[in-house]
Write a structure and sequence with these properties.
The protein folds into 2 domains: about 160 residues, Nitrogenase molybdenum iron protein domain (Rossmann fold), CATH 3.40.50.1980; about 110 residues, Rossmann fold (3-Layer(aba) Sandwich). It is built from 14 helices and 8 strands. β7, α13 and β8 form a beta-alpha-beta unit. The termini are far apart. Its main location: other. It comes from Brevibacterium yomogidense.
């Protein structure tokens, strides 16, 4: 594949620097061992849980304050990716910086795509489209001001208005935040085990044992989510943008915030006065929990959170990436704990 000119220039200009100041990650990439590069620390956590010490894991984004929607890859990132034996990414257009870097690699690396691995409605099309579009930077139109539809179509990408307008993403209406879908992460664990068993066959037995343990933990969490859904199905929830919607959908919760509000906040664009008014009014509809993404916010989202606080609606803070010092199972379990406490 043709390498993007800017990326070629970056690699050429920084070649000596990279050779001279390579840290632990550079050493890990060149010591002959197996290296796995992931788009975020979410997927790095799953790889580490399955592989243990059998591989070296390098997340491109390992900062809880970094919004992957806005991330721009560096020459060092490209170098790490080019050295990887296995690559794990979210896909669906979410981590489009990974797609850009993959297009700059001559050979076809071994890639695990979480969206492609899922059984979610619309995932197959989203996985294909994700390789053709950036996440949220190429929108040609702002959402219509008169839409009042709700962004409750996280599963299966149903977030569109009555005239058929897609949820405002360049890659379609599919909600690509699939790491908030525990069944999807179980499928990703399966993929990690399978791919690494081929790459590190001497560790196959340990990989299976570790994967079984993680699958058991995630299955237990998924069963708990199903039990909560049986008790709270159809209850109302609210979000500022779509990151938590897959979990809310699995919990049987219905988002009442208009799609126009949710889409605008996610894209970092101005929220229309009508959408703000409708979102504010929606909070009066017996909302049990309010999810606030601390990594994708803005004046309108902050104001809506203030409204939720004023109404006594429990607020659960969610993030795109994991906080430091935790792992995926613990992080997602704590998120479910917080939601359960709120809706109880």
């Amino acid at each position: 594949m043709r390498r993007p000119p800017v990326l070629l220039a970056l690699l050429s200009a920084s070649g000596l620097v990279l050779a001279g100041c390579g840290g632990d990650s550079d050493a890990a990439s060149s010591d002959g061992g197996t290296t796995v590069v992931t788009s975020t620390n979410v997927y790095a956590s799953l790889v580490e849980a399955v592989a243990g010490d059998a591989v070296d894991v390098i997340p491109i984004i390992d900062d809880a304050a970094q919004d992957p929607h806005e991330y721009e890859a560096t020459a060092r990132d490209q170098l790490e990716l080019s050295r990887a034996d296995v690559i794990v990414m979210n896909g669906g257009g979410y981590d489009s910086f990974m797609t850009t870097m993959l297009e700059a690699i001559d050979e076809e690396p071994d890639v695990i795509d979480a969206v492609a691995a899922s059984d979610l409605p619309g995932a197959e099309e989203a996985a294909a489209n994700g390789h053709d579009h950036d996440h949220a930077h190429d929108h040609e139109e702002e959402p219509d001001d008169d839409s009042g539809d709700h962004a409750d179509g996280a599963h299966g990408g149903d977030a569109h208005d009555e005239e058929g307008h897609d949820h405002a993403h360049d890659h379609g209406s599919f909600n690509e935040h699939v790491w908030y879908s525990v069944p999807t992460m179980i499928a990703v664990v399966d993929e990690i085990e399978s791919h690494l068993a081929e790459t590190t066959p001497d560790s196959a037995e340990a990989l299976t044992a570790n994967a079984d343990e993680v699958r058991g933990q995630l299955t237990e969490l998924d069963d708990r989510i199903s039990d909560l859904a049986a008790s709270h199905d159809g209850e109302n929830a609210a979000v500022t943008e779509p990151v938590a919607l897959r979990l809310f959908d699995d919990l049987g919760l219905t988002n009442v915030v208009p799609d126009q509000f949710v889409s605008a906040v996610e894209m970092g664009s101005e929220v229309s006065p009508i959408a703000v008014q409708e979102a504010t009014e929606a909070l009066d509809d017996d909302v049990r929990v309010f999810a606030y993404n601390t990594q994708t916010s803005g004046p309108a989202a902050e104001e809506l959170r203030g409204q939720a606080d004023g109404l006594g609606i429990p607020v659960v803070e969610v993030t795109e990436t994991m906080p430091e010092g935790t792992d995926y199972v613990t992080w997602m379990t704590e998120t479910v704990d917080a939601v359960e406490q709120a809706i109880a």
